[in-house]
Structure formats: structure tokens, C-alpha cells
């Protein structure tokens, strides 16, 4: 029996190796709002919303990514557009698996016999069970081997911080569902903090503000558009205005109002304050020698949420440290997973493996 088991294991390894020759290794930033895929030797080949449209009452997938996002808030009763990732973790295992399978195939241009090795970026604060769910989902979606790396570590590598040096480097990654921050030295995380606050909570805050102050019901897409066009965390040199359309909660009829960037800043103030508080806690827990390094190096901001106007200025004002916005904050995590793939020595140093249940 043991001999048969050994032979079977060897056959599986050989089979996976042969299939692996048809596949390029991949790095995936599996985000709450969007998923980015890095293909080895090709760079980032895919950036699509983490949205899946399914037939109501079934797991039958009708659309994924850009096509599914266009359906948000606009679907008939028999179609449901859902986001299977919530706060950086899997909320719907089956749908996430279908979404990953779609992205893997699309990145490899629908080639058959694709079984890539994958590095997936995950939030630093998730549980062992949640890590297991991410790994199992990727394996069922067609990966031959799965490595996981914490998002702040991936972002630090992606923006080019000298993480292997014996000095302090601080990164803040503001994503759709989580904000991750970490102090890194000698290729290891000295202290990290993850809060389940991000771009989605900012959108929710705008929706609630419009309800409370204008009796206007707006959807997720409209809230996101407001945030991008006139949202800010710090007073602007020239304040902006925008016309917003939605449904009047009293009359039940379509309605249009004009809102200003000052109002949206007020709407976002509580969410932004929670991010600032988490930054303060991280700095308080940082060893003094590494804190001294941050006076010169400052803090690096990454993630799509860091594009909120004035967020870098506000953090700098609150902490007294220089704050630098990454050159391309949206792709920082995905680029980090790609660099890890390209340098095998990084894999064992910076990736993590979920503990098996006993």
C-alpha cells in the first residue's frame, strides 16, 4: 500500500511538472475592490474589478470582472452581481474559485493545460482558517502550487523599498476592504497592523451622508465616482463641486443635488481618522532604533485608497514624518508578488504558509 501511495505521489508530481511547463508563474493581488494579475516575464496583464454576476439562487456564473461590475445596481431579479471578497477575505468560496479560474485562464489567454505556480497577496490580519480558504480556492481554480505573502510586504517590495537592509521601512497600503501598515527590516515584519477600513468604507460613508443630509439614495458606483472626483482628506487649494443624481427618499422620484468637496471631506472624516489612529499605534509599537530611521526615510503610501486627495499631507501633519506616495500605488502589491516570483530567494524569506489543522 505504501509503495502504491509513493508511486501515485510521484506520478502526480511529474504530471504537475509537465503541466507547469505550459504555464507562466503568476502573482495575484486578490483585492476586495479589484484583482490584478502579474504574469512572469510579461508584467501586469490584467486589472479587473472583483465582481461576479451569478444567476439568482444558483452558483451559475454569468459574468466576471469589468462586465460584471457594469451590472452592479442594474441587474434584473434573476441576476445578482456580487463581490465575493469582503474586507480582504473570502466571503463566498465557490464564487471566488470561479472568479480566480476566470482570471487565470484570461491571463493565459484561455490556453488549455494551464497549472501555474501562484503567489497571492493577503491581508496581514487574517486568520489561519482564512489563509487556508485562499490557498484551497486557488488550488481548486487550477494552481499547481500556492505561496502567500502579506500585502504590506508585497507593497514594500513592489515600490522598491530596501527591505533586506537592517533599517526601518514603513509602508501603508490602503485597499478596498483593508488598510495594512507595517514596519519592515531585514526582510521581516517588525510590527504590522491591519484594520478592516478602506475604500469600501469610504463609499459607505458617502452613501450615508447623502441619505442623512439630502434624503438622497445613491448606489455604490455613484459613491465611488464622488470619492474619485471630489473626495479629499485635507483642505484643497480650490474646492470642487459635483452634480449627484439619485432617488429622493421622501418623494421616491429621481433627484439631482450639487455637493462640494468640503461636504465629502466631512463625510469621510471618521473613516480617515481611523486610518490615522492605526498609523499612530504602529509608530508607538515601533522599536526606537527603527523609529529614528523613519525620520529621514518617512512613510510610503500605496494602494488605490492612497489616491484620496491630501491623505499623504494629513498623515504627514499628524505624525510629523515625511510621507511619499508611491509612483504607481494601484499596482504596488501586484508588482511585489511579481518580483518575488522572479527571485526565488525571496519566496522562502517573505512568503507564509498556513498551519495545517491538527
Briefly say what this structure is.
With 358 residues, the protein is of the alpha+beta class. It contains 12 helices and 19 strands.
Q: What would you say this structure looks like, in words?
A:
With 358 residues, this protein is an alpha+beta fold. The chain has 3 domains: 151 residues, 2-Layer Sandwich (Nucleotidyltransferase, domain 5); 89 residues, Nucleotidyltransferase, domain 5, CATH 3.30.420; 69 residues, Actin, Chain A, domain 4 (Alpha-Beta Complex). It is 41% helix and 26% strand. The longest helix is centred in the C-terminal third of the chain and has 24 residues. About 3% of the residues have low confidence.
Question: Hey, roughly how much beta strand do the residues contain?
Answer: 25-35%
Query: How many domains, as an integer?
Result: 3
Full CATH superfamily name of the largest domain: ATPase, nucleotide binding domain
CATH topology of the largest domain: Nucleotidyltransferase, domain 5
**Can you give the mean pLDDT?**
86
Examine the secondary-structure arrangement and name the CATH architecture of the largest domain. 2-Layer Sandwich
Helix content: 40-55%
| Biggest beta sheet attributes | 6 strands, mixed
Query: Could you name the CATH class of the largest domain?
Result: Alpha Beta
Poorly predicted sequence stretches spanning 5 or more consecutive residues: 14-22
The total beta strand count reads 19
Number of helices: 12
- Cα shape: flat
Measured distance between first and last alpha carbons:
24 Å
| Structural class computed from helices and strand pairing | alpha+beta
Radius of gyration: 22 Å
Give the strand line-up of the largest sheet. Answer: 3-2-1-9-10-19
Amino acid at each position: 500500500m505504501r509503495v502504491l501511495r509513493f508511486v501515485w505521489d510521484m506520478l502526480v508530481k511529474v504530471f504537475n511538472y509537465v503541466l507547469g511547463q505550459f504555464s507562466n508563474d503568476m502573482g495575484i493581488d486578490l483585492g476586495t475592490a479589484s484583482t490584478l494579475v502579474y504574469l512572469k516575464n510579461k508584467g501586469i496583464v490584467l486589472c479587473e474589478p472583483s465582481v461576479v454576476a451569478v444567476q439568482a439562487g444558483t452558483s451559475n456564473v454569468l459574468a466576471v470582472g469589468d462586465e460584471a461590475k457594469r451590472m452592479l445596481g442594474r441587474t434584473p431579479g434573476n441576476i445578482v452581481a456580487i463581490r465575493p471578497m469582503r474586507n480582504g477575505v473570502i466571503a463566498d468560496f465557490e464564487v471566488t474559485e470561479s472568479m480566480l479560474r476566470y482570471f487565470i485562464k484570461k491571463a493565459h489567454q484561455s490556453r488549455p493545460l494551464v497549472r501555474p505556480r501562484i503567489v497571492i497577496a493577503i491581508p496581514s490580519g487574517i486568520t489561519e482558517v482564512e489563509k487556508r480558504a485562499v490557498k484551497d480556492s486557488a488550488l481548486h481554480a487550477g494552481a499547481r502550487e500556492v505561496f502567500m505573502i502579506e500585502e504590506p510586504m508585497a507593497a514594500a517590495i513592489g515600490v522598491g523599498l530596501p527591505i533586506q537592509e537592517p533599517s526601518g521601512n514603513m509602508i501603508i497600503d490602503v485597499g478596498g476592504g483593508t488598510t495594512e501598515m507595517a514596519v519592515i527590516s531585514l526582510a521581516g515584519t517588525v510590527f504590522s497592523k491591519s484594520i478592516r477600513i478602506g475604500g469600501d468604507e469610504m463609499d459607505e460613508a458617502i452613501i450615508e451622508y447623502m441619505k442623512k443630509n439630502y434624503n438622497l439614495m445613491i448606489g455604490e458606483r455613484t459613491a465611488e465616482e464622488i470619492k474619485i472626483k471630489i473626495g479629499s482628506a485635507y483642505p484643497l487649494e480650490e474646492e470642487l463641486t459635483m452634480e449627484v443624481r439619485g432617488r429622493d427618499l421622501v418623494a421616491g422620484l429621481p433627484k439631482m443635488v450639487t455637493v462640494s468637496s468640503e461636504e465629502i471631506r466631512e463625510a469621510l472624516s471618521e473613516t480617515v481618522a481611523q486610518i490615522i489612529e492605526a498609523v499612530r499605534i504602529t509608530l508607538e509599537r515601533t522599536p526606537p532604533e527603527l523609529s529614528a530611521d523613519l525620520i529621514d526615510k518617512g512613510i510610503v503610501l500605496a494602494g488605490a485608497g492612497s489616491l484620496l486627495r491630501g491623505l499623504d499631507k494629513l498623515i504627514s501633519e499628524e505624525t510629523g514624518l515625511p510621507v511619499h506616495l508611491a509612483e504607481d500605488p494601484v499596482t504596488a502589491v501586484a508588482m511585489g508578488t511579481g518580483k518575488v516570483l522572479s527571485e526565488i530567494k525571496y519566496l522562502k524569506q517573505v512568503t507564509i504558509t498556513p498551519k495545517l489543522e491538527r
